[in-house]
Design goal:
It comes from Kaistella flava (ex Peng et al. 2021). This is DUF386 domain-containing protein. It is a single chain. This protein is mainly β. Helix content is 10%, strand content 51%. It has a six-stranded antiparallel beta sheet, with helices on one face.
């Protein structure tokens, strides 16, 4: 897992061939004005834009998840988002089987730590990062951009 600000995003562009393209997308667009939806940017790279109320910790933990085929770059555009995290190697209680069609595995485990993302901050989740995003106040909207980067 990597947490940083968009100001420093270019430092991570070399970590995956599609990271530079994802960060360029952020740089060339007015993030506050992007409409909700999913866009295929290129082969192996899509972006999901949402503007939703935060979830309770309990609701978010129902989908404590990780992925095997994609890296997530999650960007907070507006609001404050709390995210739970735990390394996959420490998760002992899978919730069902891995779903290859949706590229998701859920867990019943509790996060080891919680952190906050504020506007213009991002986190990169690799397959070994189990995460519970979108924890926030139900009366506060969180505008978020998630890139799905194919491994």
């Amino acid at each position: 897992m990597i947490i940083d600000t968009l100001t420093n995003a270019q430092k991570y562009a070399s970590l995956h061939p599609l990271f530079a393209e994802a960060f360029a997308y952020l740089k060339k667009n007015n993030l506050a004005k992007l409409p909700d939806g999913t866009i295929e940017i290129s082969e192996g790279l899509k972006v999901i834009i949402s503007n939703k109320a935060g979830k309770s910790k309990q609701t978010s933990l129902e989908k404590f998840e990780c992925h095997q085929k994609n890296i997530d770059i999650q960007v907070c555009v507006k609001g404050t988002e709390t995210i739970g995290w735990k390394p996959l190697e420490n998760c002992k209680s899978p919730k069902g089987e891995y779903n290859p069609e949706k590229d998701v595995q859920f867990f019943l485990d509790e996060p080891e730590t919680f952190f906050q993302l504020h506007a213009n901050q991002f986190v990169i989740f690799y397959p070994e990062d189990v995460h519970a995003p979108m924890i926030g106040k139900d009366d506060e909207l969180i505008k978020k951009i998630v890139f799905k980067v194919k491994i």
